[in-house]
Amino acid sequence: MRSTTVQAAALLALLLQLPAQAQTAPAADPQVARGQRLFLRCVACHDVADSKVVKIGPNLKGVVGRQVAAQAGFNYSAALKKQNFKWDEAKLHAWLQRPGAVAPGTSMAFEGMPVEADRKALIAYLAAQR
Ligand code: HEC
After folding, report:
1. 59 lines ligand 1 (CB under 6 A)
2. How far apart are CA 54 and CA 47, in angstroms?
3. Ligand 1 center–CA 21 separation, angstroms
4. Which residue among 7, 47, 88, 112 is buried most deeply as judged by most CB within 10 Å?
5. Distance (Å, rounded) from C-alpha 109 to C-alpha 103?
6. Residue 122's Cα: distance from chain center in Å?
7. Which pLDDT does position 27 carry in this prediction?
8. Which of 110, 119, 123 most suits a substitution to test ligand 1, by most atoms within 8 Å of the C-beta?
9. Average pLDDT per run of 10 along the chain, which is 130 residues long?
């Protein structure tokens, strides 16, 4: 009895620690759900909401299929502005692995995501943000 209470308390404490975003509307697709959790590594700088709030990085809602460096109101680096492509799965893989390999001199200060399955899940999540 006592240990059940302790376990329940521990579980509650754990749930309370979860970031707000992970608690709201868990995605039905497990791949997308995994990507949603991984997106916690991006939220300091990126938003996927409809809001026009400019964070450190551009809003990523609808980024899959979007022209690079095309978010109105965001001040991109010259390195990214001189690129000319649309964000597709292959480009996003390369970018998330090492942003500087796609646009040397980019202002996105991100160490990269080495695990391919992580990048795949994250891209599935981004593709679901329409
Ligand atoms: C420390 C802040 C920071 C973090 C963390 C970060 N980014 Fe960025 N991101 C930026 C900035 C700044 C830019 C603009 C880069 C430029 O102009 O060179 C950017 C640009 C991008 C772009 C290009 C958008 C466009 O409109 O062309 C994508 C895609 C992107 N980030 C995805 C991600 C994802 C996914 C993550 C999480 C794994 C992430 N970023 C983590 C700051 C960040």
Report:
1. no
2. 8
3. 19
4. 47
5. 12
6. 6
7. 76
8. 110
9. 58 49 67 96 94 87 96 95 98 98 97 97 96
- Distance (Å, rounded) from C-alpha 45 to C-alpha 121? 19
Q: For Cα atoms 69, 72, 77, give the angle at the middle one, nearest 5 degrees.
A: 40
Q: 């990048």: which residue's tokens? A: 119
**Contact in structure between 35 and 124 (CB atoms under 8 Å):** yes
* Angstrom distance (rounded) from CA 126 to CA 60: 7
Which amino acid is it at 29? D
pLDDT at 32: 96
Residue 114: CB partners within 8 Å, gap ≥ 6? 97
